[in-house]
Amino acid sequence: MTEFSFQTEINASPEKIWEMYANVTNRFKWEFDLEQISLEGEFVTGSSGQIKLGGQPEMTFTLTSVIPHKEFWDRTVVPDAGIAVCFGHTLTKNGDKTLIKHIAKMEKMDGELSEEDIMLLSQIFQDTPQAILAIKKVVEAE
After folding, report:
1. In CA terms, which of 1, 33, 123, 126 is 20 to 30 Å from 55?
2. pTM higher than the cut 0.90
3. Are 137 and 32 within 8 A, CB to CB?
4. Which domains does the chain have, with CATH numbers?
């Protein structure tokens, strides 16, 4: 299994940060290449939605695990690529601060991950530190 992760501390509670996720329209504040996002139903395990990032086709994502104020995972199947990208988002209370961490993993439908697959995952992940720092900036300014 190959994964990438980035974490930092934010001067805010997990409950305050959680709103950046649970209200999917807040994603425009931290996902800079986001063109469109929608969620069918509540922000709970099993819900699905649509996401469109710049230069990419519209894709369906599924919330595979949601533990309010602690973590959630989503899974997006990349059309015609035979892969799925899974992102984890965790919040760990640390005194008056919260450790925020995003994790990216790739699943291949057939066979082993290749070097090209790993490089694709690194490209997908490359703006994650910028996204987390944007969350930090927005949440700490409120």
Report:
1. 1
2. yes
3. no
4. 3-141 (3.30.530.20)
